[in-house]
């Protein structure tokens, strides 16, 4: 009798707790969240409440701790103060649509569009690392490095040897790398000791150190990839500091870094200064020198868009969506992980429906199982909309990230206006560390560069042409031949990708 009462009590308690969790979830999960994300979390909690709720509490919010929010807000205020006398852009006349994109980015991040001189897109993996090493060898005052994945191996050794030589000359070197992004690769346990041995001042980004009472949402990442030298030269792009094969034997990554000089490097240094202060508590002076005539052949007009959990408005998503809506004739999207939210998917398919030639460049096989399948779950809708999907062949992983809107537009097709000559379509580009997926929009700290004018647009267009020349075009007829099991796995992974 007693045993029966005990069982009844626990059954009733379990029943009440089960429904309490579900009622709580229905009322609180959707708040401030995308419909797709809300649906995915609610499904997980309603089906498996005692697993789904702890996961939601651990990883269900993109917000970071109060200290990081405070630092980001203070940094935004400092950037606004430093640039208070700087206009949104240096143009006398600019198409209203392009100007509105620049103003959007300025409002969300504080950074104006300024001049940057293009010293080249380094698209050969080893030569890119050597180019950064050569630039470090010219450093006179300091070198700041912020790279998501860092490994000191046979491929990256020239870079670290250049840092060692810089320290021997008395050049200050500060180095940031992401803990979770780097720890699974060979040599991580000794990396800090090796950096200290060459006298490099280094810090982990977003460290998860419970023994030091430093805990955070464990799936946040600092995904930025930047090198700043003397405040005058900078590198930004998609390349991590690790051998091209990472830790595999059957895949090799395709990447690039863009080398820049001019006032745009000040923007790069400001982002690094905020991240360095966040992890070390040490202040780096943010430079404010933005004067440049912008009349050289290599002059580009650039605007840096930092993004991440510290920003509540998802600046990179809004910028990419605006860029896609801007395209009139041709749109190029190159991203290793294309997992769009509703707004981005609608923008891309709408562009195709209104006659824009949309080209999506992805890997034939992504390097992550979940992403590979969640990404391909969108192919049906994309192909039906008339989007061209180019798959970079195995064993390579196309890790480059950039978007081009009307890259072929030029002075050959102008029109007369009251303000003077205006292009019927203004070419734009965006490049950097951000993928076009929900993780990059909400969970990763990213750095993206908008190009409003300059030869970088032409060079990225040429890079896309090189990718297209070796890629396989996926057709709707071919895609429709995939089996039931592939469709099922794709859709399940698509659901998990929305758990943001």
UniProtKB/TrEMBL annotation:
Main location (coarse class): membrane
MF terms in GO: hydrolase activity
Location relative to the cell: Cell membrane
UniProt entry keywords in alphabetical sequence: Cell membrane, Hydrolase, Membrane, Transmembrane, Transmembrane helix
The protein's Enzyme Commission number: 3.1.-.-
InterPro entries: CLS_N (IPR027379), PLD-like_dom (IPR025202), PLipase_D/transphosphatidylase (IPR001736)
Occurrences of domain PLD phosphodiesterase (ranges): 218-245
Membrane topology: Multi-pass membrane protein
Transmembrane segments: 7-28, 40-60
The protein's name in its UniProt record: Phospholipase D domain protein
